[in-house]
ATP-grasp domain-containing protein (Streptomyces pulveraceus), 429 residues
Amino acid sequence: MSERPVIAVVYDRGSASLLDIVDGLTPLGDPVLALWPGDHADEVEPLAEELARIVRLDAADHDVSARLLAAHAPDAIVTFSESLLSATAEIAARLGLPYHSPATVELLRDKYAQRRRLRERGADSVRSFAVRRPGDWAEAVTAVGLPAVLKPLCGEGSRSTHLIEDAEQGAALVTELLSGTGGENSLVLEEYLRGRDCGPFGDHISVESAVTGGRVSHWAVTGKFPLEPPFREVGHLRPAPLAEAERAAALDVVTAALHALDITTGITHTELKLTADGPRIIEVNGRLGGFQTQLASLAGDFDAVTLAGRVALGEDVSQVRADERRVVFARAVPAPPGGGTYVAVHGLRDALAVDGVRNVVVPHSPGARLPVGVQTGELAWVEGAVADHHAMRQAVERALSLLSFTVEGPDGERRIVTSEGVAPPVPAG
């Protein structure tokens, strides 16, 4: 009997939890959890040691990290963390394992380089300009025009992403973001893609794809709920409510983009805007998309982490498709952009009793600090499975009407937060 394959996972926070990763990969082989140094690694190490063999990587030296992993003779490598794509590619190259090449990861991580490559190879033509210092702003506006989207050159989760409609407002924001306290060292200004009218649904989707040996297959098209301003994701659903012609056009656009970026092995998550002129690329990401593990579990069709593991092992997954006979969803209650401290949830039992709701996930414990900023963040999310999109809207609206949260703001005032926003301070006593 041959030995089981060894699958190295370069691990930090990402689109799959530690338990989901181990559960999903164990049917395929033996996972080795390669923990990236930091607070999260320190936090999860005791649990990781109970679940699988672990390695503590060296953040400063990819050669050392590769040698540490080589001792476990991995047959495949994967990460579910956007911030670790580059490190994983470097380690994979040193170990001779199939993965995104370092050159491809540079295109996946650097949003300006990605736009430039897509234009050069005729896959998409969105105007963009790199803003590395405040003095670049005037030239960026001339090249791109307004309105436009300003976002980090390398980022995730809608961090520091803003719609710019006024040049002076944009100049001030660029100066703030690129200052020592702004948190960004480079930005990109992109043409604003105006979505078509999509009714009660979001005017954007994502296409979930797998590439093995250069062969592209698409295993799901994910619909979205309308964004919270400026560009905060609040939920995902499958199947996306698209006409067949628009769905086919979206798949063609993504296939062209993945080939343009020289992707040969790996899972990808491509976000698109649905415009009056057809689907357009927002960005291509080189890892499993957020909430894909939950949606796949709700649909009961296959394990998304297992699929990523099969791709890493070089298996043919071209026939894998999401089960679209029911509508599955994960709809979030966004955390307030002003941050604060999570205090309590209300109405949880009633929301769980709503027909079609399978679970309500509250990721915070009382006393947890909520991040400040416009990035995507959740107080909770409602998961469910129903017969159709109409039933989904009813279930979501009912569950959200029952849920509320107490959050103590940075000013010390306690407020009730719902899916509709933040209420005035709660009176003392």
